[in-house]
Amino acid sequence: MSGQVKTGQKRATVVDVARLAGVSPGTVSNALSGKRRVDEETRARIDSAVRELGYVPNMAARGMRTGRANTIALFSSMATAVAAGPSKLGFLMEIAGSAALTALSRNVALVLVPPIRDPEAALRNVPFDGALLVEPTRDDPFLALLAARDVPTVAIGEAHGAVSAHVDLNYAQTADLLIDHLLNVGSRNFPLLIGTGARRYYEVFEARYRQRAAQVGMTPAVLRIDEAEGEAGAARSVARHLAAHPETDGLLVPLDAQATGAMEALRQAGLSVPGEVRVATRYDGLRARAETPALTAVDLQLDTVAATATNALLDLVEGMECRAHFASPLPRLVVRGSTEG
Amino acid sequence: MSGQVKTGQKRATVVDVARLAGVSPGTVSNALSGKRRVDEETRARIDSAVRELGYVPNMAARGMRTGRANTIALFSSMATAVAAGPSKLGFLMEIAGSAALTALSRNVALVLVPPIRDPEAALRNVPFDGALLVEPTRDDPFLALLAARDVPTVAIGEAHGAVSAHVDLNYAQTADLLIDHLLNVGSRNFPLLIGTGARRYYEVFEARYRQRAAQVGMTPAVLRIDEAEGEAGAARSVARHLAAHPETDGLLVPLDAQATGAMEALRQAGLSVPGEVRVATRYDGLRARAETPALTAVDLQLDTVAATATNALLDLVEGMECRAHFASPLPRLVVRGSTEG
DNA sequence: GGGTGCAGTTAAAACGTTTTAATGGTCACA
DNA sequence: TGTGACCATTAAAACGTTTTAACTGCACCC
Fold first, then answer.
1. What digits encode the pLDDT tens for the residues A80-114?
2. How many other CB atoms sit within 10 Å of the CB of residue B267?
3. Based on the domain organization, do B101 and B146 belong to the same domain?
4. Which of A110, A275, B48, B289 has the most crowded CB, counting CB atoms within 10 A?
């Protein structure tokens, strides 16, 4: 009997509980939320009524009253996510797992909003009190929509637009790590491949690359490839570059989808990796590890990053003050077969 | 001006829109939802009022009235997920991505409930109108909780308990695929490693393994390892088996975390893979691909499986009739270095 | 005895939407 | 002219909480 609810029966409400316990609904609410003192004996009566009726609070009603959804949303910038396909999803999912765990430890659920054609529809149908935005582009459609909704937003990775806060992804250090590594293993002629989108980390990578190239006397070559062309686009671009520059002995390809494309081009050209050409990429995900040889990459410690971002967002949602900028653990180089023989 | 909302300003409601458009709130609701006919001219007035005020419907209020949260939850059986760590998360995340996409295409968001200590608290604070349950164990704590809440539940993988429906993960075919493959590449003495938990797919794997072993005259050996001991437990168990059975020339290890543990044991024993011992696992995820040599595994087509499950669940939520059992695309063997030289 | 303060409780309002039943108007048909 | 059907609209109720302000007793203090 007790605790059981028959199928189809209407769920018990706070008034049912109140009636059974012989108190008013307000007292039940106070007893359950603990917001006000309730007599010990009354509380006991309420508790047993709750158990007997199998009462579960109606979240929608609570949300309407309190104005909170107990939910945060994780968005990924549409364009790239689609373009980079599974790789970007890996990146996103790694963040999602950690963010969900952190959020739930604070009694908030994470809703996952994958890249989708119509961001506006997604926003409209999903209740949430805060948003996590993964590496937004300069003109990210979500930025405007979230701003219009006046909802706290935390970006993962440096953001151009107006966000409440952002967690650093250490673009500069990551770039330096990879560039210095390529130099250390002896590469002296390696181009940088980046996408054409307005991503902050492209800008940073390019800046560091050019600076370092100038220092060591390397002629810089920056190949820009539309992200939407995926692996194939990168392969074509690299093939062209190899033909024009046979002295090439390395490739710096931050976007992993483009990195595997580049590997394909190298195979076609009959060049050995890492013997003749060394290759390094940024995100140490499935693509990087599944390539043969596996690609040297960087451990961005996304779980820590996501936890930091989530906690910051929840602080904001709860109305606490919060810094506008959070540092991340320093990225660590993960050396693999593609740069060491 | 239009479409702009100043920060801190209270959000416009349907009443504000109604007043501005000179109609009643009910008409606004009808115009927006399209549930009833509304004169073309009034609809236009309402639309422009909506734009001017930057009106966004309050989901909580709508949810309270309609009884729908526009949300489904994805749960993963607690014990295993924790035990198998990142590998299980990979599995879960692959499903999550596809489920989220499918759900969103039907205007429903996916909330991600990662393995957590207190499942009951998770359930209480998260509003959802349906649940997706990944490979529940026989006594899965979520099963009871979801049943008590009387919420439609769809399991991914055969389920023991009471769920509204389940989508097959083709345990038998998967087992056959792997067993036959090991036999085909010449293995004649390979034990089966499985966990101790009450998972349906352990039972099926064991049954098929014993049957096939009897057919080909192989002495069956089933090693059961507590999932909670992870890689190390599997490594110890395999080391022991190898010492007692030097004739071992293969390993069938469905759980990928245990498979990588087994690989470690083989390395320690100085046995070459695939030369002396062939290894096969089930889930073709990061662990399988990142191992050296990469592990032969099975493509379970989780994206299709997740999409099927999600659509079934949403049908149930919308009150449609729905089959209790869905087939999945047949699993395909992915042959890798661990079984072919 | 009249005020003050406190602790526990309550009645009623409020949150913002959807839905129901009722309303007035127009049109076609007898 | 009356009758019914239909259409667009509306007023009001309903959803299930939380919160506010009021209200009890009751003890304590001048």
1. 544 444 555 678 888 998 999 899 889 899 998 87
2. 13
3. yes
4. A110
